[in-house]
Amino acid sequence: MILLSSLIIKGRKSLRGSVRISGAKNSVLALMAGALLADSPSVIENVPLISDVMVMADLIKSVGARVEFKGNKIFIDPSFVGPYEPPYDIVKKMRASYYLLGALLGKFKKASISLPGGCNIGVRPIDQHIKGFETLGAKVSIEHGVIKVETPKLIGSPVYLDVVSVGATINIMLSSVFAEGTTVIENAAKEPHIVDVANFLNAMGANIKGAGTDVIKIKGVKRLEGIVHTAIPDQIEAGTFMIAGAASMGDVTVLDVIPKHLESVTAKLREAGVHVEEGEDYIRVKTEERPKRVDIKTLPYPGFPTDLQQPMAVLLSLAEGTSIITENIWENRFKYLDELKRMGVCAKVEGRTAIIEGVEKLYGATVNATDLRAGAAMVIAGIVAEGETEVVGVEHIDRGYENIEMKFKSLGAEIKRI
What we know:
With 418 residues, the chain is of the alpha+beta class. The chain is built from 14 helices and 23 strands.
């Protein structure tokens, strides 16, 4: 039996203080799959203890890996990994399950996995992953909801991605590290965790150049050895707390971050009239005034992250004037606004655009976290709203935020889990 929990938040709190940011979820999930490519154990440090990481641990254990946690470190021994099909009841919990396809194909020239799950935020096809595998010489078939990829050998080839895809970029990197010759990924994603995964694989012995640009070249090698690697900080968690500090008219410093990864967020907060101070590994956000209206268009990195438009919608709902958010990455990602309207947010959706008219205050209500990032937005709304808010569906939030209520408590929020 699954015990479901809620967050109870007493609002009108101005957040103040500092908060340490955990390792990047999107990076760690790919690093864990990448560790399977080595011939010896790896240790990944700065791992967030979140449910998605636990699901990935179960996934890689299901194909033979030995996994041990020690605090925020994870030990992965791939010595007994094989091209086994992970059980559907684990795969369905998380979309990033598909990284096992790339890793197992790269190591064993065959892999099979059920079509993955994850947040319900619209159609998220894996056609670019399949295109990459086929270009490397693999035969791909889908039977009864199971993707099967297999080839006698992988041959490095040019792969042009029709759309910028983080998942496809990483999966093609994982599958091509042992391919004969050179693989070139054009129109590759440039997100920080792409670079983190490439650095991890290179330290193990891979030959990857160009990560962080739109052209990545992978020259095949014979073997990889396990290493110790520290994951980068989570830019989305950092952005969430920055936006929460601004929305609450507070003074919040996020620690252990890479400010360059957050330039698009910093720029929009400054445009909204928020004071932002950057240090070598911290960002301080401070404001005492109602924010100004701004328009946002989500774009692949280094553009504004799609995973932060929901928290930003809360800030803009309190701004002076009318703001527009255009969602260019995923469709159906504005469902959460129906929940926020219960708290007094004034918004209407037209296709991929949300028009948000600022109001002077929000009011507490019971709201449902429709997905991971929407849940974070509702927590922020509860902190700034008048009265009490109950956020249900916290299991979505736990997929990507480590100890979210404790971190907000440390900043002065009145929040508890029941």
